[in-house]
Amino acid sequence: MPGKNEGKTAVDWYNEGVVFNKMGRFDDAVVCFDRALQIDPNDAIVWGKKGILLARLGRYDEAIQCCDRGIAIDPQIPLWSMKGLSFIKLGRHDDALACFDRALQIDPNDAEAKEGRDQVLQWIAKQNEKKRTLNAVQCLEEALGCIPDHPHKAIELAERAFEIDPNMEYAWGIKGLAFKILGRYDEAIVCCDRALEINPNDHTAWSTKGSSLGDLGRHNEAITCCDRALEINPNNNAAWNIKGVALGNLGRHDEALVCFNRALQIDPNDADARKNKEIALRKIS
Description:
By secondary structure, this protein is mostly helical. It folds into four domains: 1-77, Tetratricopeptide repeat domain (Serine Threonine Protein Phosphatase 5, Tetratricopeptide repeat, Alpha Horseshoe); 78-128, no CATH class; 146-200, Alpha Horseshoe (Serine Threonine Protein Phosphatase 5, Tetratricopeptide repeat), CATH 1.25.40.10; 202-285, Serine Threonine Protein Phosphatase 5, Tetratricopeptide repeat. Helix content is 78%, strand content 0%. It is built from 15 helices and no strands. It has helices spanning 10-22, 26-39, 44-56, 60-73, 80-89, 93-106, 111-145, 151-164, 169-181, 185-198, 203-215, 219-232, 237-249, 253-266, 271-284. It is rod-shaped, with a radius of gyration of 34 Å. Pfam families: TPR_1. TPR repeats lie at residues 10-43, 77-110, 169-202, 203-236, 237-270.
């Protein structure tokens, strides 16, 4: 513990605090600096030293208060960076950025301020990117909820997601599905192709493209797309059903029946697959 107060000057207490600081006895050092400041409350350097120690002890609010006291006495004292670092620890990044900017106004070569400023700007950029991604995802969730009853609204929401991130594969997939529902098959295929450029393993885009090709009478191409979807996800019951329809349109009803049975194994409640199976059975008989 610090010694008694008898006859000690502010400088004595400051020097004793420096010794405790070097020994790693930070709480004792703070006590010494407090006693120095009781004698001379206008010593900006001691306020700064105390602030640095408080920050090291995780007492960031108090550290900021000490920096403010030191800066009020001497506006040029190099405490702005320490204040900024304390604000970072408190999650107050805008305040931290203002401190680092002020430090660099005083000393453009302040390495600590430059590093702190870069750190804050990187954090802000990451937060902005997270917000952008979250907004895009919210648009897509709402767009998906508009399928199949409100395809025009789904397209509008997908377009809004593109404004945030032009490379969102799911936005292209949802837009393609909406175009298919509207009977705009060529546009649906274009959207699916864009989704597949971004992610060639998007099995939903492959099956939607296959369905649109089938609607255009391009049944062999539809089968190829469904096969690709099923390579990626064998449990894509929509792809099994779409493939079965394409096979049926080519007169290959036995193969179509196998596809419909596979779709129903995956989802016994698939009404389309059940209806298509009945049609295939009638064709075979």
